[in-house]
């Protein structure tokens, strides 16, 4: 069994594998512009974030009913469990669905039906994080949070994703203030394609507790010092960074340097169906490409639980951390 870990940066829509996309398309009478799953896999060749996002939104057309969302989450949890995931904080993009006429309640209740039995079926505890699309307006984000209010018992926090450049965090100040008033935790993508300044802005203007990606913080030494001092977690996604050309190769990924700088970094899969692997695959990838030691892999696993939103269940966090400490790498795989 792989090392126990939490996954903190995972878009549920990004777990849609070609096989499930075709199965749902057939069930829902949606025609995909690809001959078969092989042709669809061929389309998974991106040059940057925008070209990925174009395909990502196109494929969402197959997700229509609550059952579709339940199946999507079930498929992710099953794969995640096999890769050692014990806790998952899952992003979803309501605006990508409401824009297609799918009510937010269908999305949340569909995902919720899967998450309700995740522990029993897959041994995974879960949290749900509602993400706003930053290339949509601030008003649309506010309307989305308003529409989610009947379902807040299912939602732990809010996040911010999609095309980063040109959409600075401050654009969403008001909706993050409202989220804070509602008692929601706050995270945001920042410093992936956008500059280090967006990381500062996400901390100072949006009050986020974790930065998703954030690797461009390395361009600003005083920001690195602050992130290390304040123990702000960064949810890194190595395979995603290579596929979206944020770094050229895995061997050039700054993960090791970031660990050495004292940053609280975690390894995650982002959109695993599109980026070539789930979170355990990402762990294996960075281990091989960067020559990480067992101590470093254990640190990454420990970080994932320390960075997770388990303040409402510290006994569970302690149990997971004890599993990490007890894990024997040499007995595995
Ligand atoms: Zn992401």
Automatic annotation (TrEMBL):
Molecular-function annotations in GO: adenine deaminase activity; zinc ion binding
Pfam families with a match to the protein in the record: A_deaminase
Active site residues according to the UniProt entry: 192
Site feature Important for catalytic activity, where: 213
Protein residues bound to substrate: 271
Documented EC number(s): 3.5.4.2
CDD domains xref list: ADA
Residues noted as binding Zn(2+) in the record, renumbered to the chain: 9, 11, 189, 270
Keyword check for Hydrolase: yes
InterPro entries: A_deaminase_dom (IPR001365), ADE (IPR028892), Ado/ade_deaminase (IPR006330), Metal_Hydrolase (IPR032466)
Domain of life: Bacteria
Adenosine deaminase domain location: 4-317
Protein's GO biological process: adenine catabolic process; hypoxanthine salvage; nucleotide metabolic process
Any one GO cellular component localisation term in the record: cytosol
Required cofactor(s): Zn(2+)
Recorded family membership: Belongs to the metallo-dependent hydrolases superfamily. Adenosine and AMP deaminases family. Adenine deaminase type 2 subfamily.
Summary of the function given for this chain in its UniProt record: Catalyzes the hydrolytic deamination of adenine to hypoxanthine. Plays an important role in the purine salvage pathway and in nitrogen catabolism.
NCBIfam families hit by this protein: aden_deam, PRK09358.1-6
Protein name in UniProt: Adenine deaminase
